[in-house]
Design a protein that fits this description.
two-stranded antiparallel sheet, Arc Repressor Mutant, subunit A, 16% strand, 4 helices, alpha+beta
Length: 176
């Protein structure tokens, strides 16, 4: 499973795996009960986790990198599953796991979601497999880009070495 397959759905808690899309919604699988359901685009917004970024003091950081930082710093906190605690505890825990976040633009409700999502991925043991799959897909993407460059260079070389035909003139032309 790739990180891009994971989605969040407005109005529904937890994480979902995107199984397919339709013109009027998406088919997703719930990680909590392993059930597949249809989510209407009229009622819900489906957001891939791959498109979510977190504000920092300098640049925005993709959620994948935030989870990687969580994984490195998880020894700094007593427990990650603090989503039932108060905002102060959530902010302290999030600050220990990801200290670079912008304190004025990242809200406690967003921190709560990210901590909950991290807990789900950790519980399902998907963090390691997501990192491996993302590395494999990035290697494949890099190889594909390199192959496209080589094809483009060879096509450019063929075009420049080919003789260009003179432009055709119409018989009805006034000039000739």
């Amino acid at each position: 499973m790739n990180f891009s397959d994971l989605v969040s759905i407005s109005g529904l808690s937890g994480l979902y795996q995107l199984m397919g899309t339709k013109s009027d919604g998406a088919i997703v699988k719930n990680f909590d009960d392993d059930k597949t359901l249809f989510v209407s685009a009229r009622k819900h917004e489906v957001t891939p986790l791959d498109s979510i970024e977190v504000y920092t003091q300098t640049d925005n950081v993709p959620l994948r990198e935030v989870f990687a930082t969580f994984k490195k710093n998880v020894g700094e906190v007593e427990k990650v599953a603090v989503h039932k605690e108060g905002n102060k505890v959530i902010q302290e825990t999030f600050g220990k796991l990801f200290p670079d976040y912008d304190k004025s633009r990242v809200y406690a409700s967003d921190m709560k979601k990210m901590l909950k999502w991290y807990g789900i991925l950790k519980k399902l043991d998907l963090l390691n497999s997501l990192e491996e799959n993302d590395e494999d897909s990035s290697k494949k993407t890099a190889a594909a880009k390199t192959a496209k460059k080589h094809v483009a260079k060879s096509n450019a070389a063929k075009q420049s070495s080919a003789k260009k035909a003179p432009p055709k003139r119409s018989m009805n032309s006034k000039n000739g």
